[in-house]
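New to this. Please check this fold:
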Amino acid sequence: MRIPSATHMSAEITSNMDELTKIIEAAENSKLLSSAKNPQACNIEVRSQLRSDLKSLSRILPPDYVFKIFKFFYYLRTESVSPVSGVKDMYEYFAKAVTGKMPMSIITWDCPGCAEPYITGGEIIRDPLDTKAGAITTLQRRRFVTRSNLANDLLKAIDPLQDEIPINFLLITAGLNAKTYYPKSVNTLIKKESAAKAVRLFTGEYQKWADITFGKLSFPIVTDLNLYPLAPDSQYWKIYEMIISGKIPIPEFILKKQMEINERITEPLSLNNTPQAELLARRVIAAYGAEGVILDELKPKLGNIIIAATEAISVYFQRSNFARQYLGMKPLPTFYTLYD
């Protein structure tokens, strides 16, 4: 990978305004900004955002990189089902990746299949997986197939950049859910297998599926149990408990929306607005909030992080960032393309 020096970059950017003009004209006249295949690309607001992206990238990147990285922003702008968040931070991340100062990772999550929930001893129980050799459930396979085309589009958008800059895509399987959402479930699994073992088996099966489905475009899949710092005194558990206890307050609209989402998940229990329903919502929100905070601790491994959100579009960004904002941290850059 060619890494231009800062001096070279400055000279190139300041002395090539004619080149910039040509790049903008080329983009506006190319299929990128005039494609009839994607109605979003014809949206006036989106076209304006793309022109802004192109001009902003041209100010901070060497000319050789501008159009290549702009194509990725074209993908984001035209495929995201909700406005992209943190675009200016994304510009900075790409600039640091180009100069070799910091790699970057695009990350997303998926959850293991779960058994139907039930209540015992006043607690909601939901086994994270039928743990027969960590088999992937039929429902989970349907989700894989449905999402595969969307993931393929994202991987194709990232692939041309990987020869140029240190950028990767990573999928994280949610092994913490059993302990954070349904803590009593950990001891109720079939054959007394641990939730951690179940999720690790599932993660291995998921990796096999990705390798077969995507071939050379495949990506690493790792469970949060192996990736996050999770010692008993870790920042993750401190933030989780601070949210549960109310020391970091949950905005009311996030709590209300999460309870609505949970009603669909736990429909057989008819929880409605019971204290159990609110406690489950608080646990889910606390897990997302703690995760949002500790992602900064992963920078030594992953570099700068961009989130590819996959669910709960109406509340995802707020749920993952309210604790960060309460602690004075910047929100995480996020886009929304992996929706079926």
Observations:
- Confidence is low (pLDDT under 50) at residues 1-16.
- Residues 6-79 form one domain.
- The first strand starts at residue 104 and ends at 110.
- Residues 3 and 99 are 6 Å apart (CA to CA).
